[in-house]
Design goal:
The protein is an alpha/beta fold and 407 residues long. The chain folds into 2 domains: 272 residues, Crotonobetainyl-coa:carnitine coa-transferase, domain 1 (Rossmann fold); 84 residues, formyl-coa transferase, domain 3 (2-Layer Sandwich). It has 17 helices and 13 strands. The strands form 4 sheets. The chain has a 6-stranded parallel sheet, with helices on both faces. A hairpin with a 5-residue loop joins strand 3 and strand 4. The radius of gyration is 25 Å and the shape is elongated.
């Protein structure tokens, strides 16, 4: 069964994470994605190890697990964009593609004649997506930046971490490169919208994606609260600003997340922990009271939660329909029965004998399901096939391009 995007061809000039995350989404949905990489070096993240992928004998392979996490389903073509011949090949490929995605600094590709206006002139139907830190215009547009910077600049770290007045308090970044991943997801949505619009208008368009924009948008429910009140929200650590109890508690052998989302669940939670006194206390019956008096309520609950193991509490609390759960490391994640049932680990073999573990796409389409056709490619694995199959170049011409360092 063909994928939802099996009719779409994508030219991927991006590297690191945000762009590759986007194009991996498109590849999972069936698009044919050509990843352009520097000869001999490739995507920077190929070298971001350890950990490294393993070959058939368990030895370290050339590529990092970081690279493998975002490059499934693509074909690798090595190309020197500083060479005029390399630029010409990109333009040839662009005439045959529906989408071009890049994450170069503002203005860099214009020097090579590979900016949107140049590509649009030879392919008016192209959907051209640029990903940068700050966007294509504004006082910061020229600045470089990584995910960590935007977590701080965009407000996320101001609401992440423990309060300043408790041990370990202070701003904290999220454990994954959330700005990169989020921008990749937003870029995927924007590209699909532009492709859909093209079916009506007959023309492509330019997409300006910025990590800063996406990170600020991520904080919408907190940021809008500030815009309404004028009061910036603070950090609550593992607690919730608007729900109590909605946090992590220590148990006799570990920790548990308890997420009481309404007043009915509060009553059920009190039953589960055998605290009828708290259920009957008028001060705590409504969420407003629990928020106002969290300073005395939470320590009382914390003492109770220390009396049983995590597993015992989960059994008792879940039996009463209150959301709760453990805090798993990734070993425990992939041992979890639900994770196993959903088949969230996908191993894909590469042509050079390297087997790559990857994480299944969460996009579950019934009529055009995701397929995992191609492992994260070795550097330049498909160079000859693309130059001959797509562009009709003969063996001698390809050999000459390789001799001159173009591919």
């Amino acid at each position: 069964m063909p994928g939802a995007l099996s009719h779409i061809k994508v030219l991927d000039l991006s590297r690191i994470l945000a762009g590759p995350w986007c194009t991996q989404n498109l590849a999972d949905l069936g698009a044919e994605v050509i990843k352009i990489e520097r000869p001999g070096v490739g995507d920077d993240t190929r070298a971001w190890g350890p950990p490294w992928l393993k070959d058939g004998e368990g030895r370290n392979a050339r590529d990092s697990s970081y690279y493998a996490s975002a490059n499934r389903g693509k074909k690798s073509l090595t190309l020197n964009l500083a060479a005029p011949e390399g630029q010409a090949i990109v333009r040839e490929l662009a005439t045959r593609c529906d989408v071009l995605i890049e994450n170069y600094k503002v203005g860099d590709l214009k020097r090579y004649g590979l900016d949107y206006k140049s590509i649009e002139a030879i392919n008016p139907g192209i959907v051209y997506c640029s990903i940068t830190g700050y966007g294509q215009h504004g006082p910061y547009a020229h600045k470089p930046g990584y995910d960590f910077v935007f977590q701080g600049l965009g407000g996320l770290m101001s609401i992440t971490g423990e309060r300043d007045d408790v041990p370990g308090g202070g701003p904290q970044k999220v454990g994954i490169a959330v700005a990169d991943v989020l921008t990749g997801m937003y870029a995927s949505v924007a590209i699909l919208a532009a492709l859909n619009h093209r079916t009506v208008s007959g023309r492509g368009q330019y997409i300006d994606m910025a990590l800063l924009d996406c990170l600020v948008a991520l904080g919408g429910n907190q940021a809008v609260g500030y815009l309404v009140t004028g009061n910036p929200p603070g950090r609550y650590g593992n607690e919730h600003q608007s729900l109590v109890p909605y946090q992590v508690f220590a148990t006799s052998d570990g920790h548990i997340i308890v997420a009481v989302g309404n007043d009915t669940q509060w009553q059920r939670y009190c039953q589960a922990i055998e605290r009828a006194d708290l259920a009957a206390d008028e001060r705590y019956r409504k969420v407003t009271g629990r928020i106002t008096l969290r300073g005395e309520l939470i320590p009382d609950l914390a003492r109770t939660m220390l009396t049983r193991t995590t597993a015992e509490w989960i059994e008792r609390i879940e039996a009463r329909g209150v959301p709760c759960g453990p805090i798993n490391d990734y070993r425990q994640v992939f041992e979890d029965p639900q994770v196993r049932h959903r088949q969230l680990r996908v191993d894909i073999a590469r042509s050079d004998g390297v087997t790559t573990p990857t994480i299944a796409s969460p996009l579950r389409l019934n009529g055009s399901p995701v397929e995992y056709r191609q492992a994260p490619p070795a550097l330049g694995e498909h160079t000859d096939a693309i130059l001959s199959g797509w562009l009709g170049k003969g063996a001698e011409e390809i050999a000459d391009l390789r001799k001159r360092g173009v591919v």
